[in-house]
Each structure stands twice: as C-alpha cells, then as structure tokens.
Design brief:
CATH superfamily of one domain: Chitobiase/beta-hexosaminidase domain 2-like
Structural class: alpha/beta
Number of helices: 18
Distance between the termini: 37 Å
Radius of gyration: 26 Å
Oligomer: single chain
Largest sheet: 6 strands, mixed
CATH class of one domain: Alpha Beta
Shape: flat
CATH architecture of one domain: 2-Layer Sandwich
Helix content: 25-40%
Length: 576
C-alpha cells in the first residue's frame, strides 16, 4: 500500500457552480458508480479506483452498483464507446444526472477515472509517494467534457519506478512491457508489447546451437581472421534458410503474434567477409547487412501472415539508413541512438538525420527506443530529465507510433522517480510544459524540502555539460564547490522533511547522487577544502551513508548488471 499524504488543495478541485454535478457534498455521497450487469474486468478496477480515492479524499464511501440507485447521481463506467484511437478516453454528461467515464477498451475507462481524479488534485509522484487532497465536496461542472487519445499507442518507461509497481505505471498512462516488466494484469488493462529486442544469434539461429558446426553462418572478422558468434553472415544462403525455417515454426506455434523482431545482436561486430564487404561498401552502413535478413523474412511472412509486422532495431552501427536499399512494406523500424542526453534531439543533427532517414525509408510509422540514463553508474548526478518533454514533441510531430525509454535502475538512481513520471506524463500528452511538470513534481514529491530541492535542480541545470550513457567523469562540469553547495541543499532538505515520512524518503533517495559524486571525486574535494580551509565529511562517512541508504531503500543495482553492494565494496577498497 502506498503511503499517502492528505492536504487541502482548494484551487484544483472541479468548478463548483449552479451546474455542478455532485459526487460528494458536505461529506455525504451524492452519486453511485454504475458498472452494468456484466462489466469488463478493467471497468471493475476503474470503479474500485474511483471509489477508493473518493473515500481517501472525503471519507465517504461511494457505492458500486450494477444499476442506478434512486436518489443518487450516476457515474456510469465502461459504457459502449467507439474509439477512434488506441487508449482514447471519454468523459461526458449523458444528461443532468449521468456522468459517463469510458473509452477505448481495455484501458480507456481506467484512464478516464485517473483523468477525473487528477482534476480533483490527486497525484501519484512515485510508487510510494502520492498526494490526495482532503475535501468535503467533490463536484464536476456539467459543462465539462473531454475526449482525448495519446499520440503514441505504445508507451513504456523502463526504469525501476515504473516497472516496480504496475499500478503506478497505469496511473501514469504507461501501457507497455519489455523484458517482462512491468507485469500488467488484464484487469489493470493488460499490456502493449512490441517485439524490439536483439534477436539474431540470441533467439534466431542461436550461436549456442549452431556456431560449433556451422561457423560459416556467422560473422567473419578481419582483425581476428576468424568467424565470431556475435553476428550472422547475412550473405550465407544456408543461414538465411535456417532463419526462415525458425521464424515459420515460431509463428505456427504463436498465432497471436503481432510484431516479430529480426534485429542484430547488441554488438558492432558485423560480418566482414568479401560478400558482406561489397554490400557495406555500396550502402555505407551495417544496416544494409541486417536488412538482407529482415527483408527476406518479411517477404516470407507476408505470404502466410500478412498481419504480422517485422520489427528491425536500427541501433549502434545499424542506426544509419543504407544508401539505396529499401524495406519491405511489412517492416517497421525501431530507431535507437545513444547520445548526449542534455541536448534536445531537435538540436542534434546526426540524430535527426538518421531519424528522418528511417522515416523516409520505412512504410510504417517508426518506433523509438530512447535513453535517459548513465549506464556506467545510475547513481551519479546526470541531470537530463528536462529534455524528455521537448524530445517527445519531436517524436509526436514525426508520427512515431510508440516508444520505450531505458531510464535509470535502482531506487537510489539519480532522479529516477521524476524521469519515469515525466516520461509517462509527456508520452500521454507531449504538449504539457516540461518545466512546469518538473516544478510540480518537486513541489509535490518533496514537500517542505521542495524549495531546497528545486534550488539543487536549478543548480545542476545551470552548470551541467554534455552527459552521455557511459563514463563516470563529472569533473568537466561539477566543481568541488558546486558539490559542497548541493550537499548542503540536500542536507537541509532532509532536515526540513524529518516529520513527514513520505517526502523525507523521497529527499533521502535523491541525496545519494551527490554523496556518490563526492566519493568518486574525493581527492578533488579534499584539495579544494584544504585550499579554502573548510571542513568536509570524511570519505568513509560518505560511504557509510551510501551503504545506509542502500539498505534502507533496498537499492538493487548501481550500474548495468552489477549489485549496489559491489559499489560500496569497491569504494571501501579504494577502487572507486
């Protein structure tokens, strides 16, 4: 159960007027939630969520009923509705006594409930951090109506916050899963799953199965003068025949498949045999080598499974489109490019050139695999969440069909809750003002510590310089003096929230970033302190605090595939 705070928020309640439709007035129920005789599972969840939050706001239990109740207004959930787009929501008045909350099945009704609750001031900042206003009256003006559909059919934030609690993900309109996370039950809307992973040599024509007996099916590397198992040789007809066989076998046993990834391994070791070299020399990109396999499979699948889309991940050395090759009509490209996250993509010419190149080449709207995390150390300061919103508008404007972002992992990862929340909000509605959203999140999530944490955030944005996905160096922008200033702001914010468990936990988790930076840069920090004749914490005390926070908030990791406890061990051993 999430920890919640109850506050008075008079300015964000629905408008009270002569035309007001009351759910609760003067702490008395005025409406019933009606779900029909045979409600869909998500309609029941939506009704339970509505009545649960109404109770938390007012202390009044709204009844859930199959039919209207005499003398009470009706909030009708899950009524028949012909949606135009995926996840469309509809809030409208049928008449003076009936408010409809409905939308595209299976998630639209549930999303409509959250749209209404947010009008009353409810906010879910993080899985264990919500604000719910205390009110005696809940009313909606009868002139209010809303029909809205998000521009992206697939919306996923792959960060610990959004994957740790599917309920929180749903509240923030995230509907996607990847690597099995988050697990979204059908009664919470189920999942949208797009197959975009690296599959060649992992799922298809597995190196673990075939490399020993058929090394010629795999990539030749000139420098090693041998075949390697990381990528396939797409010039080999026998390998292609095996790939086709495996794909058809899979589709026969998985008839509900909608998307199927034919994508290279997570490696730049593409084939350098003479045949593949000729292709690459002509097309000037490894994407051409991958497209040989993609197009071959796509043609085969189109004959027997015309509704299946083949997904090609354009990533790393395949991120650039080929010069002359074209894609089959049933191929969808998922574009992924590592980059400096502090620069909006609209100002990143190589990124935009590649994105627009794939958009021109592909017959179907693109998917995006995005990033906003420092994979070498998720904990270290990496202030780049402010670019999420502007980037989302670019994706929307170029007709992107759906997107996933790899965000930080670990409960102590830098601004992980904000990043996951902001990704969900702007993927749902890219027109929302990112700066206002960030200010709103800091104020709501950090409580009495918010002014200090806002000063900390503003400080980071003012001094930061290019931050990419790898490397742990902060010296080019985070000076010793800035570290000490930020450390002081965080300590004061922790002290300011000491009486509020909810916001105290949020601020404590956010403090790990600067503690981590101070350990990494302790020599610089010590030299600065000695020159300025200032006292600073002992290095061991900083490590002790990081270890304490890691245990308190059960932080699982600090970088890709490495436990948080290993970071503490390396720090104590002087390896970090």
């Amino acid at each position: 159960m999430s920890r919640r705070v109850y506050v008075s928020v008079p300015m964000i309640c629905a408008v009270f007027s002569v035309g007001a439709f009351d759910l609760v007035r003067n702490s008395q129920a005025q409406a019933v939630a009606v779900v029909g005789e045979h409600p869909a599972p998500t309609t029941l969840t939506a009704a339970n969520e509505l009545t649960n939050y109404v109770y938390q706001m007012t202390g009044v239990k709204m009844q859930v009923s199959a039919t209207p109740v005499p003398g009470l207004h009706v909030v009708m959930l899950g009524t028949d509705y012909k949606a135009v787009k995926t996840d469309e929501v509809c809030i409208r008045f049928r008449d003076d006594t009936t408010l409809e909350l409905t939308g595209d099945q299976p998630r639209g009704t549930l999303y409509a409930v959250y749209e209404l609750l947010e009008r009353f001031g409810c906010r879910s900042w993080a899985p264990a951090n919500e604000t719910v206003p205390q009110l005696k009256t809940l009313a909606v003006d009868r002139s209010f109506a809303k029909v809205y559909a998000p521009p992206f059919a697939w919306r996923q934030a792959y960060g610990e916050s959004s994957c740790a609690d599917y309920r929180w993900a749903v509240k923030n309109r995230l509907n996607g899963t990847y690597w099995g996370q988050p697990k979204m039950p059908d009664n919470w809307g189920g999942k949208v799953e797009v197959d975009v992973g690296e599959t060649l040599t992992r799922r298809w024509v597995k190196a673990s199965v075939f490399f020993k007996d058929h090394p010629e099916w795999y990539a030749w590397r000139d420098k090693e003068a041998k075949r390697v198992p990381e990528q396939l040789c797409t010039s080999n007809p026998e390998m292609l025949a095996q790939l086709e066989k495996e794909v058809l076998t899979f589709l026969k046993s998985h008839p509900d498949t909608k998307t199927l990834s034919i994508s290279g391994n997570d490696s730049d070791r593409y084939c350098q045999c003479e045949a593949c070299k000729k292709v690459r020399a002509t097309e000037q990109s490894d994407s051409a080598l991958l497209m040989i396999a993609v197009n071959r499979v796509a043609r085969l699948v189109a004959e027997e499974y015309p509704d299946v889309r083949i997904v090609m991940l354009a990533y790393w050395t395949t991120e650039r489109p080929p010069k002359t090759m074209t894609l089959e009509p049933n191929v969808t490209v998922c574009f992924a490019k590592l980059r400096d996250f502090t620069t909006p993509i609209a100002q990143n010419e190589p990124y935009m050139n590649a994105l627009l190149g794939w958009k021109k080449l592909a017959h179907n709207p693109l998917y995006i695999w995005d990033y906003n995390a420092r994979f070498s150390n998720f904990i270290l300061p990496a202030p780049a969440a402010d670019t999420i919103g502007p980037n989302m508008r670019v994706y929307r404007d170029h007709g992107v069909a759906g997107l996933v972002a790899q965000l930080p992992w670990g409960t102590l990862a830098d601004w992980v809750d904000l990043r996951c929340w902001l990704w969900g909000r702007t993927a749902w509605n890219p027109d929302l003002d990112s700066e206002q959203l960030i200010d709103e999140w800091i104020a709501g999530a950090c409580g009495a510590g918010a002014p200090l944490m806002k000063a900390y955030w503003d400080k980071l944005l003012k001094i930061r310089k290019g931050i990419g996905p790898y490397g742990c160096d902060t010296a080019k922008w985070l000076t010793p003096e800035a570290m000490l200033e930020c450390y002081d702001l965080q300590n004061r914010a922790i002290a300011a929230t000491i009486r509020d468990v909810r916001t105290h936990a949020q601020v404590e988790k956010l403090s790990a970033a600067m503690l981590c930076a101070m350990v990494y840069r302790y020599k610089d920090l010590l030299a600065h302190a000695q020159a300025e004749k200032r006292q600073i914490p002992e290095r061991v005390a900083l490590i002790d605090r990081l270890e304490e926070l890691g245990k308190k908030y059960r932080c699982s990791t600090y970088r890709e595939w490495d436990d948080y406890s290993n970071m503490i061990k390396k720090m104590r051993a002087g390896e970090i």
